[in-house]
Specification:
DUF1348 family protein; DUF1348; six-stranded mixed beta sheet; Nuclear Transport Factor 2, Chain: A; alpha+beta; NTF2-like_dom_sf
């Protein structure tokens, strides 16, 4: 029997919002193993120009991502939902090893299996260099910049 990750589809506005918040919370842990458990074993991703297949590749991708992107903090917002699909908009901030801060903006389309595991994730993302004083997401995850 497959693992379940509530809330399960079909989504309501309430359960879609909850699913988005759970995803935001998980990604903000920056724990690749924990994050990967929300995806099917054979999950397919498109992340920028990369195509990622399965949990093992998800863990490898996220490990490398969070080694490069220091101070990573993410915000997700429900955009739309229907049946077993959710669309989100997001932004996150991070800095590189030289200390340059960036804000990344994007959209994701998610598709879930009946057990609430994400089987498809398609992400379009753009990065914008920002000055430290332009940060909008505090280190503790709240709005309002650095803390």
């Amino acid at each position: 029997m497959s693992q379940q990750r509530p809330p399960l589809p079909p989504f309501t506005e309430e359960t879609a919002r909850r699913k988005v918040q759970l995803a935001e919370d998980a990604w903000n842990t920056r724990d690749p193993e924990k994050v990967a458990l929300a995806y099917t074993e054979d999950s397919e991703w498109r992340n920028r120009d990369l195509f990622i297949n399965g949990r093992r590749e998800i863990v490898e991708f996220l490990t490398a991502k969070w080694e490069r992107e220091s101070g990573y903090r993410l915000r997700k917002e429900l955009w739309a939902y229907t049946g077993n699909r959710i669309a989100v908009r997001f932004e996150y901030e991070y800095h590189d090893e030289q200390g340059q801060w960036f804000r990344a903006y994007g959209n994701e389309n998610w598709e879930f299996d009946n057990n609430g595991l994400m089987r498809n994730r398609y992400a379009s993302i753009n990065d914008l260099p920002i000055a430290p004083q332009e940060r909008r997401i505090a280190a503790d995850g709240r709005e309002g910049g650095p803390s």
